[in-house]
Amino acid sequence: MVAATLAEAARERRDIVSGEVMEEARLLRFVAGPEGAVVPDLARKLPGRGLWVAADRASVDQAAKKGLFSRAAKAKLVASADLSDQVDALLRRRILSGLGLARKAGDLTSGFEKVSQAIASGKAAWLIEASDGAADGRRKIWAQARKQLRPPGLLGVFTASELGLALGLENVIHTAFLAGRAADRWAQDVQRLSGFSPLLPESWREEP
Fold first, then answer.
1. Which of 20, 29, 19, 18 is CA-nearest to residue 188?
2. Which residues of 161-194 are buried (b: 16+ CB within 10 A; e: fewer)?
3. Quick one: the chain helix, strand, coil %, rounded to 5?
4. Are 172 and 163 in contact (CB under 8 A)?
5. Is the dihedral of CA 156, 152, 44, 96 positive or negative?
6. Dist. CA 162–CA 92, nearest whole Å
7. What distance in Å separates the CA atoms of residue 178 and residue 81, rounded to the nearest whole number?
8. Contact (Cβ atoms closer than 8 angstroms) between residue 29 and residue 50
9. pLDDT in tens, 161-179
10. Exposure b/e, 89-99, CB count within 10 A at least 16 = b
């Protein structure tokens, strides 16, 4: 893990739900928006006092339903009933945006052969597989990845069309995020998303 990522992980905040002090990497920041609405601040850049909640759906739902944002802010705040769904959608958008930036920076490679080469060379930190891709190609890629001393992470929440739009390509089925600083930063949002949605389709778990 690079120094910048370590520095961020070292910062600690108190979760307003559990009261536990934990690393920022495990938390989500919220602020009071216009008219007292609770607003997710995933980039941690919005002005105002930060209200920190563990990065999982149950914690965000509890904070919204039990008025914990108001209690922490010592002011009347309104948390939308679908706040956790908003966070889920925003995280997905950030993850796709991160993939687009990574491609421009040369940190991504796509296509079966190129991804296979990245795995073989040990350079693949994450494998991003289209959720609607063919099972046969996916199984071959995964079989190769599992043989590595440090297997890459796996993400399968986006369709080929969604990946294509993010990367400016067509028919994106297999993509590898190459190891490095960008991958470490991007993976933090992926880990947060895992608290709101499975990172792999349920149907994939039944594949051999």
1. 29
2. ebbbebbeeeebbbbbbbbeebbbebbbbbebbb
3. 50, 20, 35
4. yes
5. negative
6. 10
7. 38
8. yes
9. 999 999 999 989 999 999 9
10. ebbbebbbebb
Q: What dihedral angle (degrees, nearest 10) is formed by the CA atoms of 147, 148, 149, 152?
A: -120
Structure tokens at 8: 């961020």
Tokens 């563990």: give the residue.
54
Amino acid symbol at 77: L
- Token couple for 97: 């945006």
pLDDT at position 203:
86
Is a pLDDT exceeding 60 seen at residue 24? Answer: yes
Average per-residue pLDDT in the chain?
93
* Pick from 176, 190, 166, 175: nearest CA to 133: 175
Q: Is the pLDDT of residue 21 over 50?
A: yes
Q: What is the pLDDT of residue 20?
A: 95
Structure tokens that stand for 36 in this block: 């007292």
Lookup: tokens for 203:
């149907």
For tokens 């850049």, name the residue.
Answer: 45
| Type of residue found at 201 | P
Evaluate whether 50 touches 13 at the Cβ level (below 8 Å): yes
Helix 160-167 vs helix 83-105: angle between axes, to the nearest 10 degrees?
Answer: 50
The answer, yes or no, to whether residue 207 has pLDDT greater than 70, is no
Instruction: State pTM to two decimals.
Output: 0.91
